[in-house]
Amino acid sequence: MKENTYNPSYLANLGKDIPAGLVVFFVALPLCLGISLASGAPLFAGVVTGIVGGIIVAWLSGSELSVSGPAAGLTVIVLNGIETLGSFESFLLAVVLAGAIQLVLGFLKAGVIGLYFPSSVIRGMLAAIGLILILKQIPHFLGADEDFFGEMDFFQPDGRNTFSEIGFAFSQLEAGALIVGVVSLIIVLLWDKPQLKRYSFFKLIPGALVAVGLAIVLNLIFKNYFPALAIAPSHLVNLPVVDGIADLKNELRFLSLEKLADPSLYIVAFTIAIVASLETLLSVEAVDKLDPHKRRSHTNRELRAQGVGNIVAGLLGGLPMTAVIVRSSTNVAAGGQTRVSSFVHGIFLLLSVLFLASLMNQIPLSALAAVLLVVGYKLTKPSLFKAQFKLGFEQFFPFIVTVVAILFTDLLIGICIGLAVGIFFILKANYKSPYFYQREESSDRQTIRLRLSEHVSFLNKASIILTLDKLPANSHVIIDGENSEYIDYDVLEAIQEFRKAAHERNIKVELLNVPEVGVLEMH
């Protein structure tokens, strides 16, 4: 299979990847800490996973733009796993075993499952994530949320839900946090203006860095001159301060082998492996749609990378990891081009733990919420809903169901509901062989003709994509839909994306009786 056909020089993109990695770091740091708290794990565990995801998994990954770390979708599994096994140390063994299972899945090429997720459901997931980011960050933006930063579920630990929390926040807002949030939001929005991007300073320095730096300064001014506006410690980043190797050893936890003969250990490990793998495949598929270069990730390699990451994280006392769509979409929005941006975010996480904890703990969460508000809007622009609606009922309905289901439950449950609706529409179509493959030799270049069958449904998408990926370079490919009464939109989209990237392999593509469709661009 041929993936990642766009292969830029890592050095040539440092000017974009380093600032993007810094922005991802600012988003990832409070998420790592918050997910640790929500999971009932030691505070340092989430940061360990973020560091491993950035420094190790980034280079093993099958994706140039995905960012790995602890995922909010696994918090309940982690919480129940620790309770089932009796200690966090025993749970770490389950994380290591889960990583080993993911390695096996990768070598068994189970990553092909990712090709079977309908585009409408993936876009619905991205739009829902955008809406959740906006709704969940409003209370932090106002300085009135005691729940962990980055929580994604509709029903919250404090008994409120996503919408009632916003109402509560307006009644309990902190003026200082709101001022910092508004100033940060204005800076991030202005920094994205094309007029400013013409100047090298605005290209090299990320707006999030300026916003965070100014937020720290503003809060210091409040503390010294306007105490009533000073932001409460509960609304600042709270990173463990490590003073030397001894403190670092005290923060880290290491696995215990005492539950090795307990069957429940293997049930927990298998659950982590399956859920983490599915969430990773969904995230990678979604980030491929955001990639401006339209690269396709190597999903089997991604599963193997996640397996190595979970083994290392478990050995070092970290939480289980996945490729995380919030961090990955932030990476794309910040201009990341290659896996260097994810690596840079991991380096910054490590440096923040070892040397910068005191400084990081002065960052107001309202400034970080401003960054996520902008990321959320980019994922769920009104134009996306309009474009999806124009594709017709069979594309729009699974899309909107996925959005609503994720919004009112959580990521995994919502995706399952969206997939169920998508499968219902798929099963309405008859499954037949999608094409007839014919090879024709000519004097100048090899000609390959793919005659599409009478009915080409979404079930045929993976087969067609794999066939197109294996077509030889320097060939002439004719895709003939003369005999087709129906070709599913997802298949048409895959054909169009193949045609756009075919020149990179010097393949000439000719479409006969294949309808043109607009490929939705995610920015």
Describe this structure in words.
Strands 3-4-6-8 form a four-stranded mixed sheet, with no helix packed on it. A two-stranded antiparallel ribbon has the order 1-2. Strands 5-7 form a two-stranded parallel sheet. The protein is globular and about 80 Å long. With 523 residues, the protein is an alpha/beta fold. It contains 22 helices and eight strands. It has three domains: 15-369, no CATH class; 382-427, no CATH class; 435-512, STAS domain (Transcription Regulator spoIIAA), CATH 3.30.750. α1 packs antiparallel against α14 (325-333) and α4 runs antiparallel to α13. The longest helix has 28 residues, at 263-290. Helix content is 60%, strand content 6%. β3 (435-440) and β4 (447-452) form a beta hairpin.
Strand content: 5-15%
N- to C-terminal distance: 27 Å
| Coarse morphology | globular
H/E series? HHEHHHHHHHHHHHEHHHHHHHEEEHEEHE
Structural class: alpha/beta
Mean of pLDDT: 87
Number of strands: 8
How many helices does DSSP assign?
Answer: 22
Regarding quaternary structure, how should these chains be classified?
single chain
- Order the strands across the largest sheet as they lie in space: 3-4-6-8
Radius of gyration: 24 Å
Fraction in helix: 55-70%
Spans with pLDDT under 50 lasting ≥5 residues? 1-5
Main beta sheet strand tally, sense and closure:
4 strands, mixed
